[in-house]
What we know:
- It is a single chain.
- The chain has ten helices and no strands.
- The chain is mainly alpha-helical.
- The protein folds into two domains: 1-54, Arc Repressor Mutant, subunit A, CATH 1.10.10.60; 65-207, Tetracycline Repressor, domain 2 (Orthogonal Bundle), CATH 1.10.357.10.
- Helix 4 (56-77) runs parallel beside helix 7 and helix 5 crosses helix 10 (189-207).
- The longest helix is centred in the N-terminal third of the chain and has 25 residues, at 8-32.
- It is elongated.
- The termini are far apart.
- The relative contact order is 0.10.
Amino acid sequence: MSDRVMPARSRRKRRAILDAALEAFLAGGYDAANLDAISSAAGVSKVTIYQHFGSKEGLFVALIEEEIHRAEHESDEYLEARTDSPDVEEDLRSFAREFLETVMSPHLVAMRRLVVATAPRFPALAEAWFRNGPERGYETLADLFRRLDEQGRLRVPDARVAARAFTWLLLGAPLNEAMFRVDWAGSDPEQRAALADDAVEVFLMAYGRTGPRQADGEMLP
């Protein structure tokens, strides 16, 4: 039964279970999460969890799928209004800062760690996370860069290559730090802003309409 046709009381219980499960799975991982503790935190019986999700595995799958659907919508919303402004550089800076703030949020980093840790047990979920998160983000950016190239505002021979390059100019260093440092608790807003600005500057050196310059100052073709 979908949330739309579920009675309001059942929707509230389902929401409470998912919220409690999220805290439990993020706190100790899949194996350490306990349905007794989740039911207690949610204020429901363990039988209610089984009625809604069937099992601990079913609860975990539902939770990750919900996060995936949320990521699907967010990736498109960022870029909806970024093709009409005359200032491409400022638009990219604004997007880069928003993107870093979202992707490097402690919640999303913790979810990424959880999905990676459980990938051998739930390979389909890991694939869905990649397809609807990073891969969808690449495609959304590539579509934007194609439009900006057609409008003569960027010079982008291969939009997918440009999308991946831009993404990893932003994420390469901070995401590696967040994934491997157990004491990581979030990034500094000023550092994120500086990283976003630097990434845009480097990106436009390669893909801006002025193009890269030779040592003598002449434009490369």
